[in-house]
Amino acid sequence: MGHEQNQGAALLQMLPLLWLLPHSWAIPEAPTSVWPDDLQNHTFQHTVYCQDGSPSVGLSESYDEDQLFFFNFSENTRVPRLPEFADWAQEQRDAPAILFDKVFCQMMIRELEPIFDGKIPVSRGFPIAEVFTLKPLEFGKPNTLVCFVSNLFPPMLTVNWQHHSVPVEGVGPTFVSAVDGLSFQAFSYLNVTPEPSDIFSCIVTHEIDRYTAIAYWVPQNALPSDLLENVLCGVAFGLGVLGIIVGVVLIIYFRKPCSGSISSGRARYSDACVHVSGLFCGTVGGHI
């Protein structure tokens, strides 16, 4: 009962802030359309978050849980996660509403933090990191390493890359996006030209508890691009020659006339001719 009363008191203290909610949705909603039954519905998710850590405020926008953009509040611009989204990132008509959401979120943090301090879990498990290539691996050809961080809450993290235990400079921004269940995920990208001796590591530090997750990447099951091309050409040429030889042998074999009689006491079989090419032979095996 005491716990329920504490929750009720906390909600009552939140009531003075509710007058701001209609202003945070300043952009008019599009009219609801009626979709035919054979069309699939999709979800566009616009998530603003703020916290007493780094980053202090963030905005992610995703389509069916695939992140499209995050918002750079220092420059008030959208940043596309992939180059293909660059044209859409130029849209800035909703910038005033985004800035209002930022102020509103920070105000909520200031008001609610003293109320819920010690009553809400600060962290939810440890982040998990894994590294993979964006394109199929070929040595000597440009590629991109992707460090994917899951089970992230709250989204306070730093991502660093190392090559043979040496820090890598010039790493791009880390893209943080919200997923269902009040959790987050993050992506960090590193442009590389892989070589057989490479060892890369993605080091993820969860700032809330200083937990560090490290994911390593080493080349596996890859061939140098020139060797891969030579092997494929050799296999194709070998299959072609083998096909020609088999074709010639079959033509010679099936153009031989089937014997009409065989010495007494021996069996006459022409099943192979019947099964494979009935045009050449029309008899079946038997004894004379």
Automatic annotation (TrEMBL):
It comes from the Eukaryota. Belongs to the MHC class II family. CDD domains: IgC1_MHC_II_alpha_HLA-DM. The keyword Thylakoid does not apply. InterPro entries: Ig-like_dom, Ig-like_dom_sf, Ig-like_fold, Ig/MHC_CS, Ig_C1-set, MHC/Immunoglobulin, MHC_I/II-like_Ag-recog, MHC_II_a/b_N. GO terms for molecular function: MHC class II protein complex binding. Its main location: membrane. The keyword Transmembrane applies. Residues 121-215 form the Ig-like domain. Residues 1-26 form the signal peptide. It is found in: Membrane. One of its GO terms (cellular component) is late endosome membrane. The chain crosses the membrane at residues 234-254. One of its GO terms (biological process) is peptide antigen assembly with MHC class II protein complex. It comes from Callithrix jacchus. It is a single-pass type I membrane protein. Keywords: Adaptive immunity, Disulfide bond, Glycoprotein, Immunity, Membrane, MHC I, MHC II, Signal, Transmembrane, Transmembrane helix. This is Major histocompatibility complex, class II, DM alpha.
